[in-house]
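ugh ok fine here u go
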Amino acid sequence: MKLATVYHEKTEKAAIVHEDSVFLIETLNEMENKSWATDIFSLIETNKVEEIENWYKTVGKKLLDRCVAVDKLKIKFAPLYRSPRKIWGVGLNYTEGKTDLKHISYQDPVSFMKPDTTIIGPNDAIHIPKASTNTTAEAELAIIIGKSCRDINEEQAKSVIAGYTTALDMTEADIHAENHRYLTRAKSFDTFFSFGPEMITPSSFENVDALTVKTVQNEKEVHQNKVENMRFNPFFIIAFHSKVMTLLPGDIILTGTPGATVIRDGDLIEAHITGFSPLINTVIQTN
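structure:
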């Protein structure tokens, strides 16, 4: 099942994406006499995503033909939500293939955090900071946590995922190059995290390892790799961070990128992942 947040009557509202149409949760509530929350963050917090998915699979698909829909191509998508408690990122997480991992110089994930003030959504503009000549963008698969968890293992991690989504993570690379301890500052400028347009539930994927993640710049593929080539798989990443802190519904974990690309004023930057609609953002140089 695919969920999204769309602009409708000047408000950001949760919706199901079914084939080429979008169905507002508020419309489904009226049709089915339900009381589901009408924003995705609340749906995750109240543990209703699985209930909606069960409805969708057993009843909903057949009923949507008589439900008022919006053409997916005629609607503007927003970020999935705007106020997660935590945004974690993982760096340096892909190999070029099934290489010998004993040559890696670190044993744990290289992780960092981003503030929610970095959040933008599909088709919003990424603003390159003043005087920056080396801002980069990276396409990533993002995990959305669905259940509160602490100190879990990899197998348990599979059951706490609400969904996956596409993301673009930006970095002011000159700040990071000046001193690697400046990583958080380099990644925390406004507009430096885009995610959406869709959250897809885990049951929609037979094998997450088979997903391909691509960074596309000005309609040209610049980096690509498969999840199976991650040094630390998504379930390990969840379990690892849960041993540091309690993970909460709506927390977001970026799983790393196949590669970064320098972005310039006027660029179009995209994240493409198997099974998802592309996440596309424009780029503006701040004067």
